[in-house]
């Protein structure tokens, strides 16, 4: 995949993510999941703004989801992704994977139930495995100002909604 930037580059990366083993949620993870789902819908926007003030990774994921992806991410879904990402890179991979699954299912709206039923029903991949995926998307293209394929819109075109 190196240096072969095509509109399905990220889709192929997500197919590799689908094959990763996952680690079941811990009791603490399940408690956090329920805490997030119990946030009233009319408090989601305030919750998101408060979370972004305290956590720059959350702010980055929010901006990426709104600027680069075509699925609509519910604030609680972004929080669930952030809580399960140990870095901005992991969070970005998880965002794009959620977008990929949404496109595959024909579901443009991503909320916490969608994530728990269709994206990560059995748990999340390990940080080590996500790092391997991150390394796969590294590029070295002349004249391209980034070495991350995930930062280039063309690379994720096939997982976007029209």
Would you kindly provide a written description of the structure presented here, covering whatever features stand out?
The protein is mostly helical. It has one domain (9-159). It is 56% helix and 2% strand. It contains 8 helices and 2 strands. It has a two-stranded parallel sheet with strand order 1-2. The longest helix has 18 residues, at 88-105. It starts with 8 loop residues before the first helix and ends in a 26-residue tail after the last helix.
Spatially, the strands of the biggest sheet line up as: 1-2
- Count up the domains: 1
Strand residues, percent: under 5%
Topology, number of strands: 2
Q: What is the helix/strand order?
A: HHHHEHHEHH
**Structural class by SSE content:** mainly alpha
Low-confidence stretches: none
Helix content, binned percent: 55-70%
Q: How would you characterize the largest beta sheet?
A: 2 strands, parallel
What is the first-to-last residue Cα distance? 25 Å
Mean pLDDT: 93
Which word captures the global form?
A: globular
Radius of gyration: 15 Å
Number of helices: 8
């Amino acid at each position: 995949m190196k240096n072969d930037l095509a509109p399905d580059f990220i889709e192929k990366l997500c197919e590799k993510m689908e094959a990763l083993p996952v680690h079941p949620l811990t009791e603490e993870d399940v408690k956090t999941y329920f805490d997030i789902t119990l946030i009233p819908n009319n408090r989601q926007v305030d919750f998101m703004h408060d979370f972004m003030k305290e956590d720059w990774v959350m702010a980055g994921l929010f901006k990426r989801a709104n600027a680069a992806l075509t699925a609509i991410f519910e604030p609680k879904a972004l929080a669930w992704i952030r809580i399960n990402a140990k870095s901005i890179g992991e969070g970005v991979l998880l965002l794009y994977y959620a977008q990929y699954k949404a496109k595959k299912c024909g579901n443009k709206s991503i909320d916490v139930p969608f994530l728990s039923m269709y994206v990560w029903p059995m748990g999340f991949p390990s940080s080590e495995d996500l790092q391997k995926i991150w390394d796969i998307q590294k590029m070295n293209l002349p004249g391209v100002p980034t070495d991350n394929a995930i930062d280039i819109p063309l690379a994720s075109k096939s997982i976007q909604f029209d």
